[in-house]
Design a protein that fits this description.
Bound molecules: pantoate
Structural class: alpha/beta
Shape: globular
CATH architecture of the largest domain: 3-Layer(aba) Sandwich
Low-confidence stretches: 257-267
Number of helices: 12
Strand content: 15-25%
Radius of gyration: 19 Å
CATH superfamily of the largest domain: HUPs
Distance between the termini: 38 Å
Length: 267
């Protein structure tokens, strides 16, 4: 597995490759990330992973500072998974403009997580655009857990005619149903015991109001619980750890015909 520490090493590596599948990450890798790698191995000839904790997408300094860093373990996992190369850029390399130039979307990015995390999606879209340009990836793989991110990235690829296929991969869950996330590492034992209830509640088929009450009763602070297309999306915090999750909604609606819910605009 090649370790590419700068842009020139990446460019040199890329010149010798054919069909590159790219998995962008912020490290602290778990089985969810590895499922993206597995998918990339199926569809692409070479697999490139980036690890870069992107400061421009953090709206809270404390969240950025506490973001888990497990680089040695990450590299071991990627090597075992059969990844061809890992790109490890630093801020100065990715942001020679010091973030004066940005990609922003001015509609859907303001809703849901965007409404609670100002500037978050500008940071995500900007770094993903940079990474797609640099990697010249043929396919790029994103998890459905970050549903809004996925939708916005698809929109950006279409808007800017980027020559890359965006491939969505299903949410990977712990045995108790908690959606895998690097932030789960920061849950206390007590919070970790409560966390799986979020998934149990949103797949219950109850009305939105009843689910809202159940989420709050379990001890979460709810940011939103709403439908978007055919999904039911939730964001809720346990202490300072914010969790997001989503489930297909159509089946649930048929379970409860009297459901009332708020619809938000499609991207
Ligand atoms: O989903 C993530 O881990 C990040 O938002 C991404 C896509 C790697 C951009 O920093």
């Amino acid at each position: 597995m090649e370790i590419l520490k700068d842009i020139s090493a990446l460019r040199l590596w890329r010149q010798a490759q054919t069909k590159v599948g790219f998995v962008p990450t912020m490290g602290a890798l778990h089985a969810g990330h590895l499922s993206l790698v597995e998918e990339a191995k199926i569809h692409s000839e070479q697999v490139l992973v980036s690890i870069f904790v992107n400061p421009t997408q953090f709206d809270q300094v404390a969240d950025l500072e506490k973001y888990p860093n497990t680089l040695d373990a990450d590299l071991k996992k990627l090597k075992t998974a059969g990844v061809d190369a890992v790109f490890l850029p630093d801020f100065d390399q990715l942001y020679p403009d010091d973030y004066r130039y940005q990609i922003s979307e001015n509609d859907f990015s303001m809703a849901l997580c965007g409404a609670h995390r100002p500037g978050h999606f500008d940071g995500v879209l900007t770094v993903v655009m940079k990474l797609l340009q640099l990697s010249e990836a043929n396919q790029a793989y994103f998890g459905e857990k970050d549903y809004q991110q996925l939708r916005l990235i698809r929109g950006m690829v279409k808007a800017f005619f980027l020559n890359v296929d965006i491939i969505a991969c299903p949410i990977v869950r712990e045995a108790d149903g908690l959606a895998m996330s690097s932030r789960n590492l920061r849950l206390t034992q007590e919070q970790r015991a409560i966390a799986p209830q979020l998934y149990q509640i949103i797949r219950s088929g109850h009305s939105i109001e009843r689910m809202q009450r159940a989420i709050e009763k379990a001890g979460f602070e709810l940011d939103y619980l709403t439908t978007q297309g055919d999904r039911l999306l939730v964001a809720a915090s346990l202490g300072e750890i914010r969790l997001i999750d989503n489930v297909p909604y159509d089946n649930l609606v048929s379970l409860n015909k009297n459901n009332k819910h708020t619809k938000v605009k499609q991207a």
